[in-house]
Amino acid sequence: MIRKIGVLSISLLCLATITSCEKDFSDVGTNVVNNDKFETGEILLDVQITPKNIESVQADNINATISDYWLGVYNNPNAEKIEASIISQLGYISNLNNKDTDTTVFNLDKVILKIPYQATSTGTTDGVTSFKLDSILGNPDVATSIQVLENETYLNTLNPSDPSKRNTFFSDKEYLGSNVLSEGGIYELKPKATDTTFIFDRVDRSSSLTGTTTYKDTIRAINSQKLKVPFLAIPLDMPKMKALFWDKFHSGEFASKEAFDNYFRGIKIVATGSDGSLVPLNLASSPTPSVDFHYTISEVDGTTVKDTLQKKYSFPLAGVRNSHYKMTPVTNSAPANNFVVQGTAGSIAEVKILDETKVQELKSNNWLINDASLTFYINQTVNNDADIIPQQLFLYQNKENETGGISPTQLTDAYVDPTSFGGLLEKTEDKNPEKYTFRITDYISKLLSGEENTTADPLVLKVYNPTDTPVNNNAITTTVKPYNWNPRAVTLLDGNETANGTKRAILKISYSKEK
């Protein structure tokens, strides 16, 4: 852990009187007094940074509409290694039929887990559309070990301790089940944009039900635009899936959704390894992620095959879907007077900008706050690629509540003026990552004016997640949700002036005061 040593201090940049007339004031979006009775100034406030590891984050889709799930291994040497896995129920299908009759025979041919990759079209040539995979982190040329296992933990949507409340699942929860369903045990994941087909050997039953001759058959994933998109296809163990599903379609275990959810409690798609790549998967995508049972229907007359038809049953990845993050300590510790902010179950930073003594001192100045900004500079030696670090950070406040606990709370600036609140990655002219800046003018103004419920409790810096946005459907949510599925990390300079100079973490306040 890196902790800034020292106390909060103030560096006055502009204490000398500035001639005050209208042309000397620039309106920065707040209350600037435009007459010759006021002067403007600017101060820099040193801040104290305390990095903190995150034990877990909420990682289910029960209380929020989450569609992005990460799968794989990301070994960033400057952050914690992430082994990201997925746990999901399967949707129920009614009226399943695979019962042989005197004239119809069913044969199971192949079972695969199929999940489309997130991909962007790069153009079409001669009727063939090419793609690039989106947002992959790490090295896709290094194989990541994937196992699909049967989940044996019942994924209850209601809290067992209080059935009146929705259940929650955190990223470090352990799920029972060791029955390996993936064919051959281990599937080696090397995601490629060219993975638009899955080819397998299907038994040719066109002339005989007992034939053993095979032919190459092809599976594709077709999206709503009728394009053949890249997808992940993991073959599953035929004997096991036949026993678990195919042979039980007409049994009590498949008689209702409730019976099915209790019988087959879902799958675990588990990633392990020392290195590889991390792939974002949209489980609400089109085509739908599913476990597909490919089978052949043979129309027969006695022992003579009259016709064959290839079909499939698709069990969608639906219901309760959770993420699991196994975090391994960082290989290279952050340099002195630096700190790391990492998403998923990585790390955050507590930012103390003002203590009560300093608040009272600033209050006595009777300033009108024109602008207040908090800036964090990136260590460009560690992070020189803008594409793999967080594109946005988020700032909120841990407020003490009435029970003595902590309530993660939105800063008012996040919803009073969200377009100016900031937190977006800023780059230099040559496109190198440079800094993140937050404007917290409303918060500082209310704090120094003594507004009720505005406190100097520490702020918290984290990797931005879509659920952090306080405004949704024109409704404001002041509580910060405990979700994060963004795995990116960035190394930042702390508030040590001696070590980091003008690029230290700093709070800048611009003000007006009466002469």
What would you say this structure looks like, in words?
- With 515 residues, the protein is mainly beta.
- The protein contains seven helices and 32 strands.
- Strand 29 and strand 30 (475-476) form a beta hairpin.
- The two termini are 45 Å apart.
- Mean pLDDT is 91; it is low at 1-30.
What does the average pLDDT come to? Answer: 91
Instruction: Compute the number of strand runs.
Output: 32
Q: What count of helical segments does DSSP give?
A: 7
Give the helix proportion (percent range).
under 10%
Condensed summary:
The chain is mainly beta. It has seven helices and 32 strands. Helices cover 8% and strands 42% of the residues.
List keywords for this structure.
515 residues; mainly beta; 11-stranded antiparallel sheet; 6-stranded antiparallel sheet; 32 strands; 42% strand; disordered N terminus
